[in-house]
Design a protein that fits this description.
- The chain has 444 residues and is an alpha+beta fold.
- The strands form six sheets. It has a five-stranded mixed beta sheet with strand order 6-12-11-8-9, with no helix packed on it. A four-stranded antiparallel beta sheet has the order 1-2-3-4, with no helix packed on it.
- The protein is 16% helix and 27% strand.
- The chain starts with a strand and ends in a 43-residue tail after the last helix.
């Protein structure tokens, strides 16, 4: 159309009318010389008698080259392939030792593979195949190591005796990232060997009845002695094997504090499918009082929790009150006694020092004991007794005080230094003013 002719060879070339030019399949226009004009009149289309040659075929090697260049251009953009350790992801982490046996104080080399790259690991020598956890390992002589890019490591480890007997293992565990662990069998030369503890996982104990605390507090507890009770629990064996001498954990807690656990072995056996009553002692610290909680665990599983209200030891409070009152009073009395002893005497006060008795003075005859008020006789009789006693003292009392040979007939004596001595009066010779007449009775 439009004067264009298509190449019958299928080369994709287009011939323009008038033979001006052609366009090949590659899109490049090839220009030909224009035909000379013969006349102004329109001429009929001319057909060249020269043979028409077919164009050269296209190169088919360009498409693979273009595809290869495209792949090379996109290669840096593609994500990297899986790391080397991912190919062995199905293999668990492993550990090995250079020697199967060594003595304490030596050293072994521990190697491992299959771990995550750049992971921090701990290496410990543990006894009893690490059944009891890290408590059975020599934690003080452990080592740490970091894996390389391939997840492997190799490090020396000093040989130390674990706190538990053998069979022993070298335990390797990951510290960072997901949990992972591996064990390698190892024997510590000279370390004791004991059979592994019995597996009690098959014996499952459960509480079948409400627990209770039995016992009471005595007089000593009232004065601060440790409170004691007995935890009574009825347990049943839900497992397939009997539980022989099971070990329970009894804990006591106060307030927000965590329980303090104590392992207690119950002597007895609980057959499979049967029940038994277990009694375990519980004891608190001295002077404990308030609200406590008693807990019981078996096999790492909590069985019961029983509250316990402990009374206050009032005897201790009373003791301190008495101590605060009695001790200051005793100290005060002792201090006053010391002050009375050490302070000087006051001027004019009589001397309290006792003088030695005069051996030349004859002791006077002691007076008769007066009867008590309840045994006193009639007032007239009492006056007669007093009068007789006075007369006796006047007659014989002065004779003991005077020197032998002196006379007692006079009523007035003279002292050795010349001073006059007052006369003695008897009831008969006493002045009349001393006598008291009884007033007349009324109506007489």
């Amino acid at each position: 159309m439009n004067g264009e002719k298509h190449d019958p060879g299928g080369s994709g070339e287009k011939y323009q009318a008038g033979g001006v030019g052609r366009t090949d399949g590659a899109g490049a226009a090839r220009t030909k010389r224009p035909a000379p004009a013969t006349s102004a009149a329109p001429a009929a289309p001319m057909v060249s008698s020269a043979p028409v040659t077919a164009p050269a075929p296209r190169r088919r090697g360009r498409a693979p080259a273009l595809l290869a260049s495209l792949v090379l251009a996109l290669l840096p953009v593609l994500p990297p392939g899986p790391p080397a350790y991912a190919a062995a992801a199905a293999d668990p982490p492993a550990a090995a030792v250079s020697q199967s046996q060594a003595g304490a104080g030596g050293s072994i080399t521990v190697t491992g593979r299959g771990w995550r790259p750049h992971t921090l690991l701990t290496l410990l020598i543990c006894g009893q195949n690490m059944i009891g956890g890290t408590n059975s390992c020599a934690n003080g002589d452990g080592r740490t190591v970091t894996t390389d890019d391939r997840g492997a490591f190799a490090t020396p480890l000093p040989v130390a005796e674990p706190p538990k007997p053998c069979p022993c293992v070298v335990h390797v565990a990951a510290v960072t990232g997901p949990a992972a662990a591996a064990d390698a069998a190892f024997k510590v030369a000279g370390h004791p060997v004991a059979p592994l503890p019995q597996d009690v996982s098959a014996a499952r104990l459960a509480v079948l009845a409400q627990p209770r605390l039995t016992g009471s507090s005595g007089l000593l507890t009232w004065f601060g002695a440790p409170p004691q009770r007995e935890l009574v629990v009825t347990v049943g064996n839900l497992g397939s094997t009997p539980a022989k001498d099971p070990v329970f954990q009894v804990g006591t807690s106060h307030g927000v504090f965590a329980p303090q656990w104590d392992d207690q072995r119950w002597r007895g056996s609980v057959p499979a499918g049967r029940k038994a009553e277990v009694r375990l002692p519980v004891e608190l610290a001295a002077g404990a009082h308030g609200d406590y909680l008693v807990s019981l665990k078996y096999g790492g599983r909590l069985l019961v929790e029983q509250p316990w209200e402990v009374g206050r030891p009032w005897g201790v409070t009373l003791f301190w009150l008495l101590l605060c009152i009695v001790v200051p009073a005793v100290v005060f009395r002792i201090g006053m006694a010391v002050v009375d002893r050490v302070r000087p005497p006051r001027p004019g006060a009589p001397d309290r020092a006792r003088t030695a008795p005069d051996s030349t003075k004859t002791p006077r005859t002691p007076r008769t004991h007066r009867p008590s008020r309840s045994r006193r006789a009639h007032p007239d009789r009492q006056r007669r007794r007093r009068r007789d006693a006075y007369a006796y003292d006047n007659a014989y009392g002065d004779a003991y005080d005077k020197e032998p040979g002196t006379s007692t007939s006079t009523s007035t004596d003279t002292a050795p230094d010349g001073a006059a001595v007052l006369p003695w009066f008897t009831p008969d010779t006493a002045p009349s003013s001393t006598a008291t007449e009884r007033p007349p009775s009324k109506g007489s």
